[in-house]
Amino acid sequence: MSLGTQGGTDRQRSTQGGAMDAGLAPGTGTPSPRWEHLDRGTERVVRGSGRTVEEALEQAAVALCALVADPSTVEVREEVTVECDARDFDHLLANWLRAVIHNMAARRLRFRCFAVRLDGWRLFASAFGEHLDPARHQGAVDPRGFSLAGPSVRRDADGRWTAECEVDV
After folding, report:
1. What is the pLDDT at residue 141?
2. In degrees rounded to 5, what are phi and psi of residue 140?
3. pLDDT tens digits, 45-85
4. Could you tell me if 77 and 129 are in contact, meaning their C-beta atoms sit under 8 angstroms apart?
5. Alpha helices for 3-124 (secondary structure H)
6. Which of the residues in the chain have pLDDT under 70?
7. What b/e readout covers 67-77, taking b as 16+ CB neighbours within 10 angstroms?
8. pLDDT value for 142
């Protein structure tokens, strides 16, 4: 599927994605929160979208985790608390994704889903997942070498939020 960026000039290819729910959000007529991976030339982009900025940040983290292991193979056995802050949403996205990477690498965790709450520019989150199980998390990539560039959080014309970031794997 080809998508245009905010300006409509950059062509992207969606390589995979998912949604916590399917279809429309109950009672709203708007699409459910979702995540996807995009290829922009040699760049790999993780993108999350949702009705709120919190949902977009949650889904961007799921997209990041999906580069490491298929989230559907991760069981919810542990809850990890994550906090970070920044001066704006773009930097908050980068700090949030770095915190997720740190927990995956240092604690050998894999995450399935997240719950994010914002208080101004401060993010409070719960990450749900389990320790790496090589038998179930086959093909898992080591997140220690990930680097991030170009974080972007924006509200689209339709009122939905999008959070995306380039990831060098």
Report:
1. 72
2. -60, 130
3. 999 999 999 999 999 999 999 999 999 999 999 999 999 99
4. yes
5. 53-66, 89-106
6. 1-30, 139-140
7. bbbbbebbeee
8. 74
Helix extents (H) in the chain: 53-66, 89-106
Domains recognised in the chain with CATH numbers = 2-168 (3.55.10.10)
Q: What is the pLDDT of residue 117?
A: 98
What is the 8-class DSSP label of residue 77?
-
Measured between alpha carbons, how far is residue 15 from residues 66, 101, 107, 111 in Å?
Answer: 12, 21, 28, 20
CA-based nearest residue to 112, from 71, 79, 69 = 71
The Cα angle at residue 17 between residues 16 and 18, in degrees rounded to 5:
145
Residue 162 φ/ψ region, left for φ over 0, alpha for ψ in the -120 to 50 degree band, beta for the rest: beta
